[in-house]
Amino acid sequence: MTNPLDDLSVDPFEIAKQAAQVIADKTGVPKHDIALTLGSGWAKAADLIGETIAAIPASEIPGFRTSQVVGHTSTIRSIALPNGKHALVLGARTHFYEGHGIRSVVHGVRTAAATGAEIMILTNGCGGIKTSWKPGTVVLISDHINYTGASPIEGANFVDLTDLYSKRLRDVARTVDSSLDEGVYMQFRGPHYETPAEVQMAKIVGAHLVGMSTALEAIAARQSGLEVMGLALATNLAAGISDEPLSHAEVLAAGKEAEPRISALLAEIVAKL
């Protein structure tokens, strides 16, 4: 089936509006207040934050694709929160390295905005540069470095990213766990892992975390007027920081081990928003 976002003459925001309407029709929820993209290790949070109203296969919603990455689901869930609000959980994340184009990468974020969401929570599993961050450490993203060479913003639309990752939301997270550290996330294109030399470069230019998602989505979220929170799970020490070779199996294993703890943390944070 052809994805409408493959046609570059189509307005991607119009496809996001169509997707939002399908979500509203299938869930019976006219407006969602909070949206979450759950990366590696974070999926169980969807079971803890509230009552699932509906789970929709991504293939049934315009512009979405079935996730090709192990550790990610391919469903969009509408969840009723205990405080009366509704959360939209985006399990179908498209990564830049999958080659479907940047419009597909940020379609979930744009759809979230079109459903009425005001807060976007982006989570991921990534490599940590600080040696004090043991595998399984959760880090609040305070800023990012976009090393993909791409932007989701098309045309002469100049978007201020000064305070892209909301300090207010980081402060809320610390009311749940005051020990949460923060750092700068650097997005590489992938899918290959970074070399030790690239990790050292990242460290020199100010990064504390390296991965293959989040930054492009955060830019699109700001363009759409969403308040952004970024939560990174440091699943491993980045290349060259540890002597151990990197593998996706390691990322999945660290995520699975940390999943109950970090999912409960995220659920508590969402309850305060």
Explain this structure.
With 273 residues, this protein is an alpha/beta fold. The chain has one domain: 3-Layer(aba) Sandwich (Rossmann fold), CATH 3.40.50. Helix content is 31%, strand content 23%. The protein contains eight helices and nine strands. The protein has helices at residues 12-27, 45-48, 102-105, 107-114, 167-176, 196-204, 215-223, 248-271, and strands at 34-37, 51-57, 75-80, 86-90, 119-128, 137-146, 181-187, 209-211, 227-237. The protein has a five-stranded mixed barrel, surrounded by four helices. α6 (196-204) links the parallel β7 (181-187) and β8. α1 (12-27) packs across α4 (107-114). The longest helix is centred in the C-terminal third of the chain and has 24 residues, at 248-271. The chain is globular, with a radius of gyration of 17 Å. It starts with 11 loop residues before the first helix and ends with a helix. The relative contact order is 0.20. The model has no long low-confidence stretch (mean pLDDT 92).
